[in-house]
Design goal:
Elements lengths: L3 E4 L4 H12 L4 E5 L12 E4 L5 H8 L4 E4 L11 H21 L4 E5 L26 H19 L4 E6 L1 E3 L8 H11 L4 E2 L3 E6 H14 L5 E4 L2 E4 H12 L6 E2 L2 H18 L7 H6 L9 H7 L7 H13 L4
Helix pairs in contact: 1-6, 2-3, 3-4, 5-11, 7-11
């Protein structure tokens, strides 16, 4: 059996994709800058590589049948936007080029819901294509450009399928992700107020299964939103309240106040090089409710996500067990 290559398995979604493949008996090769950082993926073959090193990617993909390119530099603030571009855009091109040279049969590219357009008052879907001017900050800008690279390869006949996860939650959120950090801060009691914003929350295990379904049944060159429940931030805190044993915050922060805090926090970060507590790009993203529908994935992939409550409970349990809160 030829292995499937998974990039980003030291991170949240990539770990779950690799775990889902291993649980199905698939031979798995995982690419990591530091293979010793891989955890709880016994049975997988670890290879060292870096998205900024095309030669390492070509070595990693040799002999693989499929690629799940999940890895990305995911931060809402960076002191070096070009470094993020090199990983997310140039690295995606190098990974696609290496896979094409290796004769890979199927390539699943992990984009983001941030590459879906969100017209005011509308629920987003795959037909709503974001424009560069819509992208707030280097992360979203780089992911949109990387998605364009994936579509370019698909137009040239390479079998690329794109998935757009929303806001995954659950166990093994190592870093944690920005969404995971919101959960950690709530459990710690460090979330005294909230913004009037909204996310589409999804169990990370469902996102992983959506990747596998996209590989098996997705149409080349198509995008598939992998989401579940549209929730306001207030509703997320209300769902977390009985799990964490904390009351949800009752104070709503005006957007102007959050924006001012983001300006100050990010300016200080630019001076000190330390990550801001309230990244301005994150505040700008919160201006719109990032709500979407996943009917296309349900219809074409058989994608059937469960409720978010169980994943939120699993996230809290895992964060507590691993010393995050």
């Amino acid at each position: 059996m030829k292995p499937a290559l998974v990039t980003g398995a030291t991170g949240f979604v990539g770990w779950h994709v690799a775990r889902a493949l291993l649980d199905r008996g698939q031979a798995v090769r995982v690419l990591a800058r530091n293979p010793s950082a891989l955890r709880e993926l016994e049975g997988g073959e670890a290879v060292q590589g870096d998205l900024r090193d095309p030669a390492s990617l070509q070595r990693a993909v040799a002999g693989c049948s499929t690629v799940y390119h999940v890895a990305a530099d995911y931060r809402l603030w960076t002191s070096d936007p070009q470094e993020m571009h090199r990983s997310n855009v140039d690295g995606t091109r190098a990974m696609l080029d290496g896979a094409r040279r290796a004769g890979v049969e199927r390539f699943v590219y992990t984009s983001t819901v941030g590459c879906i357009a969100f017209p005011e008052g509308s629920i987003g879907d795959e037909s709503m294509v974001a424009q560069p001017a819509d992208m707030q900050g280097p992360y979203k800008q780089s992911k949109l450009l990387a998605e364009h690279v994936a579509l370019e390869f698909a137009r040239e006949g390479f079998p690329v399928v794109i998935v757009n996860p929303t806001a995954p939650v659950g166990d093994h959120d190592f870093k944690p992700t920005p969404t995971g950090k919101v959960i950690v801060d709530f459990v710690r009691g460090a979330m005294p107020a909230y913004l009037d914003t909204g996310l589409n929350v999804v169990d990370v295990r469902d996102v992983a299964l959506g990747h596998l379904a996209a590989c098996e049944r997705g149409r080349v060159g198509e995008r598939y939103i992998l989401g579940a429940e549209n929730m306001t931030l207030r509703q997320i805190f209300e769902a977390l309240s009985p799990i964490a044993g904390r009351k949800p915050p009752s104070v709503q922060i005006p957007y102007a106040v959050a924006y001012a805090a983001g300006v100050v926090s990010t300016a200080w970060a630019n001076l000190t090089g330390q990550e801001p507590r309230a990244p301005l790009d994150g505040v700008k993203m919160a201006r719109k409710k990032m709500w979407v529908r996943h009917e296309k994935a349900a219809r074409e992939l058989g994608y059937a996500p469960g409720p978010a409550a169980g994943a939120l409970a699993r996230a809290v349990e895992w964060f507590r067990a691993n010393g995050h809160c």
